[in-house]
Automatic annotation (TrEMBL):
<protein>
    <submittedName>
        <fullName>PIG-L family deacetylase</fullName>
    </submittedName>
</protein>
<dbReference type="InterPro" id="IPR003737">
    <property type="entry name" value="GlcNAc_PI_deacetylase-related"/>
</dbReference>
<dbReference type="Pfam" id="PF02585">
    <property type="entry name" value="PIG-L"/>
</dbReference>
<dbReference type="InterPro" id="IPR024078">
    <property type="entry name" value="LmbE-like_dom_sf"/>
</dbReference>
Length: 217
């Protein structure tokens, strides 16, 4: 069943890491912007933990690069820098700072008035940072629609009670957006234990049909 968006005029998309907003919700962002709706994006963690042993990419450089990657990809979807908030919380440590995560996220959400919808990670996601953000959103007071997306593990199975939206441009467009996050796709080569999206994972992430589950209010 298609995700209805016509009544949504102002929305927030929450990403645990820089790139989750593209992997999980590029189609929603695109559809909302094309109908003239305001979209704000909140990126919770700083993204610094993907390559902890890289000498060429110390945390400060990696954080700055990952922010630029998100901003460039979001600009292609019609979201400008002034509508993107980076909370800068520790990547890989959101569970350990759950109270701070909830406080910072709630404050950022309150700054967007007359909000109709929040889109964020699901509690069923395999990544602990994603679950920590989902828990923070669950505990944030909000009377509008709540939609969730799942990133990990990558899968294309049909989600029960799921609503879908398709990114215009298909898989090629989704893949192109994801590839803007070069630091997560093998561009950093001096950390043998660093993270990189595998080819089979990219194939799943690039699927243009995104799935969402609506949460009870």
């Amino acid at each position: 069943m298609k995700l209805p968006l016509k009544a949504v005029r102002r929305a927030i998309v929450v990403a645990p890491h820089p790139d989750d907003e593209i992997i999980g919700a590029a189609g929603v962002i695109q559809a909302l912007r094309r109908q003239g709706s305001l979209v704000r994006v909140i990126v919770v963690s700083n993204g610094a933990a993907s390559h902890p042993n890289s000498g060429a990419w110390p945390p400060e450089r990696l954080i700055a690069a990952r922010r630029r990657e998100s901003l460039l990809a979001l600009r292609r979807l019609g979201v400008t820098r002034d509508h993107v908030t980076f909370l800068g919380l520790p990547d890989g440590g959101l569970s350990a700072c759950a109270v701070l995560c909830r406080q910072r996220l709630s404050r950022a959400i309150r700054q967007c008035r007359d909000l109709d919808m929040i889109v964020g990670p699901a509690m069923t996601d395999a990544h602990p940072d994603h679950r920590a953000v989902a828990a923070a959103l669950r505990d944030t007071r909000f009377a509008g629609r709540r939609m969730t997306y799942q990133v990990w593990p990558p899968q294309r199975a049909r989600v029960a009670r799921g609503r879908t939206i398709t990114l215009a441009g298909g898989a090629a467009a989704k893949r192109s957006l994801i590839r803007m996050h070069r630091t997560q796709l093998g561009a950093i080569t001096d950390d043998p234990h660093g993270f990189a999206v595998a080819r089979h994972e990219l194939a799943v992430f690039a699927h243009p049909v995104e799935q969402f589950v609506e949460q009870g209010r």
